[in-house]
Amino acid sequence: MSAVANPATVAECLRVGAGFSQGDRNWIAEQFATLDARLAGFHADATEIEVSVKDREARGQKVTLECWIAGRQKIVTTSSEEDLHAALNDVRDDLRRKLNDSKTKQEPRNNKHLRDTGQAEATPDEIDLDGTAARVDTETV
User: Fold this and answer.
1) What pTM value is reported for the model?
2) Are 66 and 76 in contact (CB under 8 A)?
């Protein structure tokens, strides 16, 4: 992976939505700090994260974490845990898993189109007895 000039971090990309106040932002950013390593591969100016909660502190509260990264599909994770701290940890861990899955889908080994570019197959006369491709040297005149 190429190095990113301005890597994304939770502190830089996090927005708080419905159910949270700006006062909650620092506390939530601390909870999500473990995502920084995963987000570092993306540009900060092309990454957004928003967390919101519906019916906070009520029996049926629902925490939603949304992540937008340029060039990728939006990722949404939700949790219905009754404890807010547990719900935040749940959506954070789910987002990490989905980011890993998204990265894996875009790697060449899982994408035939990317894998096939630039690699020529060996011709039958270039293959050794053990089935591996042999190096073929050309003579210079």
Assistant:
1) 0.70
2) yes
| 86: helix, strand or coil | helix
pLDDT score recorded for residue 77: 95
Identity of the amino acid at 18: A
> Distance between CA 138 and CA 141 in Å, rounded?
10
Q: Which long-range contacts (CB under 8 A, 24 or more apart) does 19-25 make?
A: 19/52, 19/53, 19/54, 19/55, 19/56, 20/51, 20/52, 20/53, 20/56
Provide the percentage of residues in the chain whose pLDDT is more than 90.
48
